[in-house]
Amino acid sequence: MDNYIDLNNFEDIPVVPLRGLVVYPNMTLHFDVGRKKSVAALNTAMDTHQMIFLVSQIDSSIEDPSERDVYEVGVICKVKQMIKIPNSSNLRVIVEGIARASIVTMYTDGDHFNAVVDRAPIYDVEVSAENTAYIRTVKKEYEVYASIFKKISNEVVAKIICCEDIAELTDYICENSFFSFSDKQAMLEEFDPQERIKKLTVLLKKETTSLEIEAEIQDKLQKEIDKGQREYYLREEMKVISDELGEGETPLEEADEYKTKINNLKCSEEIKSKLLKECEKLIKMPSGSHEGTVVRTYLDKCLEIPFGKYSKDRINLERSRKILDADHYGLDKVKTRIIESLAVLKRNPEYNGQIICLYGPPGVGKTSIVKSLAKSMNRKYVRIALGGVHDEAEIRGHRKTYIGSMPGRIMQAIIDAGTMNPIVLLDEIDKVGNDYKGDPSSALLEALDPEQNNSFNDHYIDFPIDLSKVLFITTANDTSTISAPLHDRMEIIELNSYSIEEKFNIAKQHLVKKELKKHNLSAREFKISDDAIYKIIECYTREAGVRSLEKNIATLCRKATVDLENGKKSFKVTDKNLSDYLGVEKYSKDEIPKENQIGVVNGLAWTQVGGTMLPIEISALDGTGKIELTGNLGDVMKESAKTAVSYVRSKTKEYGIESDFYKTKDIHIHAPEAAIPKDGPSAGLAITTALVSELTGVPIKRNVAMTGEISLKGKALPIGGLKEKSMAAYKAGCDTVIIPKDNFKDLSEICDEVKTAVRFIPVSSFDEVMIQALEYIPKKDKKQNIIIKSDDTVSSAVTQ
């Protein structure tokens, strides 16, 4: 019976062992519980009296402790709240400490620990001078402790100052101090408040003294180590670490390596001197500093510049012409100009020629012809896309002092090419913008001036670079947007839109083969007829170049690949089955009217994708003299219409027109396809012809097209885009085209197939236009009308 315990004087409570935590009476504690025994103990407590016994583990690393692995003293607590953590089996618990207690015995009750505990007795602490002195001492020491240990809040200090109960004060200080785990447990195991405050006084004094000593040590170290000594120490430490790891260099060794590379450069002494100064800066900088990184990056980039490295030109004019002809169909004017430049370079390698700008609509081969030129010269080719560039620093670079600074695009192109004489294509130079960040087009002036680019200064590199051996070629779709000084530095070579025959030959000789190779098809597997290619050009594309044509051929190749993969032996495309693969025809052909009409004339217009027919329709209606202009006409075209009306008013007697038609008739001028904007003065002759036809009732010949501006006195003024306009007239079926006399010189640019099929008639005044365009010449006396048959020959006509 010696081991018998009378349980009537003790409490039997579920136990939860704590790891690394010590609880005190009157303390509210939040903690998570994950062990199964602890969760079971908490569930049992919540099902009964909500009381739990929390006791700390001696070794917090033990996952499943026994009664020997916990301290004998813990705290009886009341569970205030218990929440299940979402997506987990763990519990989040809030408890409030009630009283100290010591374990009498601990046993396992089902799936959790239970303990029989003996609650600590309540001590009566008398108010004595000694206790008051201890309270004051502890409070003063804690104030010092809190002033050194910055993590303690002012609210905690204030509460401690106001507390006068020894038991509550000691527990609250222990709860809000950063003592070691063993010290906190020792304070918990002291039941007598008077003894506890004595121990706490000693413990606080010890902690405060330790913190003061640490602070003094830090102050002394901070004073003893100045900036130079600290940098020296860090350098030596980095050196030792690098030596131990077998990697890295000291700043001195690194600078010596840079100096060796700089001295081996084939550049001027001024450049070497500047770079060597940067090396001297590197020696004085700590290896890990930001400034050192900036200098290293700068030196590395400068050493990448290919000083003294030049590609050896292999210029053979006959071979170059063959390469250009093999890669591009047509473009004779451009090829001739390129061959001329090559001939000059072969004869005088030191020649710094004009900067060439290839100007034309998209897809005509501006970029690809530069690649062919580089191949024919054996030079490196680099392309710089200028479309959308707004920042001047993109061209000239950023100052190296800025974070993330880098050379400009021109300098980077030289580095990428690896030679000092590459061919640099400045693509889409007309798309360069300007805003508050600067004007990039102005930054290009120095690089594109043969007289200045031998000392081009990039802001990042910060010393002159010789670009005189670089062959700059630019491309543009619209030269009107290029700044005047930049335009003046370039020789503009125009690449016009391709004719139908040129597109056919390009597709036949280049595009089909290119797409067959890209899709891994053989000529036996994929066949396309000539009529199908013509139909794609005329009914599925409307462009100056051949990009859309290439896309449609690629679509056919994809269709062929699917059929071949499904077991088909070959794939053949004809004009009959083309719509099965490409869908409904997107564009209808421009066609002339089927019969001569009154008030309807075949005008001609230039667009970005080539020439097009521009029918002009006029109706004279009874009214009050209003002029109505429709068809999405621009201001210039509206002015041409008003000029035409004024001219006809001045010729009413000669043409047999009522002299007051401008008062009694409403004139409605319309250009079909109103969704497409139309502008320009070149429809002046056409509008005047249609107006005279409408007012006189004389039909206009269906097979005649015309272009030209009209003056107020009836003169035919020159226009642009004659090649494209004449092609449009030819495709529509016109056999006669009336042009201003000043455009006669432009007939040399028109392709032979158009010259053979179309008769061009140059005119200097509107009277000559009437002779060719109207069925007969209207006179004041209707009986005296002169009839001009369509097969009559006019002395001013020129047959090409």
Automatic annotation (TrEMBL):
ATP binds at G360, P361, P362, G363, V364, G365, K366, T367. Residues 13-208 form the Lon N-terminal domain. Induction: By heat shock. It is an enzyme of class 3 (hydrolase). One of its GO terms (cellular component) is cytoplasm. Keywords: ATP-binding, Cytoplasm, Hydrolase, Nucleotide-binding, Protease, Serine protease, Stress response. The active site is at S682, K725. Its main location: cytoplasm. InterPro entries: AAA+_ATPase, ATPase_AAA_core, Lon_bac, Lon_bac/euk-typ, Lon_lid, Lon_proteolytic, Lon_Prtase, Lon_prtase_N. It catalyses: Hydrolysis of proteins in presence of ATP. Its EC number is 3.4.21.53. The keyword Disulfide bond does not apply. It holds the Pfam family Lon_lid. Belongs to the peptidase S16 family. This is Lon protease. It comes from Eubacterium coprostanoligenes. The gene is lon.
